[in-house]
Amino acid sequence: MITLFTTVGFSVLTAAQTAAARLRETVGASFTLQGKPVDFDFSRDGDHYSTQLAPVSQQMIDAITNKKEIKGYNACQTAPVYSSDLYFTSGASYGTIAANTATEWNRTFNNGTLTLDRGKHLAGEGHGMALISRELAKENDLDVGDSISLSLSKDDFVANAVTLQIAGIYVSDPDMEFDLDTIFTGHDSYWELTGDTPGTYSGSVDFFVTDPARLELVIEQIRKEASVRWDDYILQADDTEYKGIASQLTSMKRLTTLLIVSSVVVSAVILFLILSMRIKSRIHEIGILLAVGGSKGAVIMQFMTEAIVLLFLAILVSCPISYGAAVQIETFLQNRIGVISIAVPVHRLLLQYAAETAIILFGVAAASYPIIKRKPKEILSQMS
């Protein structure tokens, strides 16, 4: 039983540790840099108002991404746009242009709100390219490869206008709210359309870290960046997804460790009691062996050899049972967590078996001691 419980316990513990390490690479975490509001203004046509934020410069972004803990970033800035070519799904006279460094890293694509249906994501500056929603494409009979024209003014579709080629079409999760009139593009097209200074971003920038467990430490290091006037900017961490799964894994590791320790302690106590009873029941055999000239060491060695043989047989029996139990546990955990694979390294098994051997040998020695410490005459007299 001790072999079975310990093997399964170490299997789950190893799987949780491996899954936690994999989560750090796949799920990831990020923090957002955004300027504080510096001005509020209404559009020239009075349809909507805009909030002007302190701009984020490319120099600030480069200073942060130069750190080895940062694996990438995505800057995002938006503006209302008009078009003489499009009918917007909301029925409004305008839609929204959303410029991104890489649309694949945009939060709405990352969290599953949006999925690319066909075409390709925009990378780099994405100049002259766009992603539109399936609904907007259907409303206007558009597809990948077609072009659309956008302008900042509903009265003048020539001034500050850009023509974008549709590179891809995205779909939105029906259970999530999203503006289907959002048109994704690159920053070059955004700057050409708005007339803003290239290399400055009026929205937010998401930075993705290599190790979510170090997110807070990375943010503290970023705050010490002397080239940024932090009174004008906000840093906000986002590790919700990682924490949600990591907390389950942490709880599972703690519970598994507790079960392993408990099973080992309880099994060791039961093992000691069984060995004590077994050796006491063989006091007649011990007396005869000592009477014919056998040494106490030889008697203890015989008991230890018998115990090791029984351990070997227990290992042979427990291996297939442990494997079957591990497969069932793996299936259960995958349904609950989805990112776990149970496997025990050979070195971990060898270490476990070595520890079990040491426990059994110690148990045999401890159980034998109350009898072996007696003189042969005392043992023979007890036999009579």
Could you characterize what this model shows?
It is built from eleven helices and 14 strands. With about 375 residues, the protein is of the alpha+beta class. The strands form three sheets. Strands 1, 5, 6, 7, 8, 9, 10, 11, 13 and 14 form a ten-stranded mixed beta sheet that branches. It has a two-stranded antiparallel ribbon with strand order 2-3.
Give a short summary of the structure:
49% of the residues lie in helices and 21% in strands.
How many strands in all?
14
Determine the number of helices (DSSP H or I, runs of at least 4 residues): 11
Strand content: 15-25%
- N- and C-termini, Cα separation: 37 Å
Give the SSE order as H and E letters: HEEEEHEEHEEHEEEHEEHEHHHHH
SSE topology sketch:
Blueprint: H1 2-26, E1 29-35, E2 37-42, E3 49-53, E4 56-57, H2 58-65, E5 70-81, E6 95-100, H3 107-110, E7 114-119, E8 129-133, H4 134-139, E9 147-150, E10 162-172, E11 182-185, H5 187-194, E12 200-201, E13 204-209, H6 215-223, E14 233-238, H7 240-281, H8 283-291, H9 296-336, H10 346-372, H11 376-383
